[in-house]
Design a protein that fits this description.
The structure is a single chain. By secondary structure, the chain is of the alpha+beta class. 32% of the residues lie in helices and 26% in strands. It is built from 11 helices and 14 strands. The strands form 3 sheets. A 7-stranded mixed β-sheet has the order 3-4-5-9-8-7-6, with helices on both faces. The chain has a 5-stranded antiparallel β-sheet with strand order 13-12-11-10-14. A two-stranded antiparallel sheet has the order 1-2. A hairpin with a 5-residue loop joins strand 8 and strand 9 (202-210). Helix 2 packs across helix 3 (30-42) and helix 7 runs antiparallel to helix 10 (240-261). The radius of gyration is 21 Å and the shape is globular. The termini are far apart.
Length: 329
Amino acid sequence: MPHGPELLRILSDGRFHSGEALGKALGVGRAAVWKRIRALRAAGLDLDSVPGRGYRLAEPLELLDPEIVAAALDASVRAGLGPLEVHHEVDSTNSELLRRAAVLPSGAVCLAESQRAGRGRRGRVWHSPCARNLYLSLLWRFSRGPEALGGLALVVGLAVRAALEDAGVPGVAVKWPNDVLHQGAKLAGALIELSGEAGGASCVIIGVGINVSMPQALGSAAITQAWTDAERAAGAPVSRNRLAAAVLGRLSAALALFGEQGLEPFLDEWRAHDALAGRPVVVQGMEIVHGIARGVDVDGALLMEDEAGVVSRWLSGDVSVRAEGEAKP
């Protein structure tokens, strides 16, 4: 959308701006301004229009700024990252990095205000309203092949959990393999896409989506599971720029340690924040199985104990807590 980013920047202060003033700032006529206002509304932004006063956002917005994100990073973290890009809109931040993975260095970062086709695990849609949440992807290279990266999803989930805590969100837990919850409601998730050959090096794209200030109406209409966002969980405003810096800081440190030592150093942290441990769960993979969650092993597999006391390992699948009294098939 031509001028879309600039129009949003002007309106982000939450004040009224006349159509004439907006047209002058953008170098377009008032009819073109109206078309761009409609496009922002279609992107999920709440815009007021008052005759004689003009247009304003219902509330001010903090837009993503690569300079603010970079300034909030420790110098050692910034030195270990590659280029940091912020886009107004992409299909998905993971897809944007995947297209250029062959030429980008390890540590390349892509952020976007909105995604046309945000993706979650197992082909699910990640709903991505404009300028309300955090959509971030990080490219990372490991010297080991994909077969040696078991447990990476858990490490990512723990890093996101810690970053949210850094940003003032208390009581955050992890749900295998890498969902992040607050009081049982989904707050964040990750999509990890790997490439590489057995015995060789790996290139990993780690996509992180965090609900920061999700519009209630959109979330209720589009999301089929219990959900929340960082500002509701914190009970206070959460800066998306500072949260992005916290995620990058926690992720880069965790990935460096994981690359050297694997999952072992993270197991105690996982146990301390595991939302499933000791609870009755249902795992859906090739079949549906009920049992009690018993944590994870050194490969990142979910351990589940059945009624006979037999413990099974799950390397993939969807897991949910079984409601009290829910009948087994």
